[in-house]
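Hi support team,

I'm filing this because I wasn't sure whether my run with S-adenosylmethionine finished correctly. The job status page said complete, but I'd like someone to confirm that the output block is well-formed before I use it downstream. Pasting the exact inputs I used:
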Amino acid sequence: MMTLTHPIPFPGFGALVRLAFPGGRVTPRLCVESNPDGTDDEGILPFYHQSILLDEVVEALVPGPGKLIADGTLGGGGHTEAFLRAGATVKGIDRDPEARVHASQRLASFGNRFEAVAGCFSEMSELARQGNWGGLDGILLDLGVSSHQLDEGGRGFSFRQDGPLDMRMGNTVVTAADLVNGLDEARLRQLFWDLGEERSSRKIAAWIVAARARQPFKTTLQLADGIASLLGRRGRTHPATKVFQALRMEVNDELGELHRFLNEAPGLLKPGGRLAIITFHSLEDRMVKQAFREASLAQLDRPEWPAPRPNPARVYRLLTRKGVAPSAEEIARNPRSRSSRLRVVERLESLSAP
Ligand SMILES: C[S@@+](CC[C@H](N)C(=O)[O-])C[C@H]1O[C@@H](n2cnc3c(N)ncnc32)[C@H](O)[C@@H]1O
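And here is everything the job wrote out:
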């Protein structure tokens, strides 16, 4: 688990949303879609993603007949399949058309109990309104990218396979190459520090600015191999890991998506409905932990108050005091689960409850 050495305050994490090209925002916060590029036509679905904390998520959301669950990060459809098998109806949202195509094929046998929905989870209220979903019994977010997205060189997320320096999950406008070639040195440094927690962010930003003056960055390996030569580190973790994480998070506005969703979530759930979020690094986990805590404290206390007061913003009961981590067995089976944490809350029956 990464440790947060330079916390970004929440809400209003500031630095990253101020990252901008001179005169403009970095990422247009539009969730438009690109065309599906299709999967294999022979009815055989290639490996897509291994679901993380599957049993723990099912236990948390208690899917069953008559229950309506929104999976805000459909991906390969693994968690959704478990909800469907338990008898629930599921709306599976993903901003990536490849994920929706894959999951729709995988889950076709569940008929109209499953619907793949195009969009971002930050837009869930609007999607629910348009689709007349009504209140939800459960919501899952399993943040980040799928193994399929990471491993497909052509998507530009991989520092091991060459591809265009892209990193868009959906069809937002700005790519990783735009950031690497367009941000000034100070903004690059800030980006790698804030979102990647990269200790060598200053050195890497300076190298990028010098290198791109000779030749703009176009491919993933141009960047990844260059960082590896610059830092000369050896070990299990590729030296470009943190830079790639920072670029991916900024390209897809991942913290902004989560922040907007957390504000909307209480209004989406039925009383007694549950929200489960799996995070993969400390910035996300901190944001979820803080939002859940603030919305579940029964009482607030301040040094200047004579006595604690009821929390007017209380909407949840906290079901996981500490984040749930994967078992040693799961980590051995799936090393990508290593840094995951699951946090769960339940919407209060009555919002005026003390
Ligand atoms: C880790 S995978 C989910 C895997 C899935 N739970 C499973 O069991 O197969 C995350 C998925 O969420 C999607 N995603 C990430 N951020 C999103 C957002 N803000 N809105 C909608 N989909 C998003 C990604 O495109 C990716 O397919």
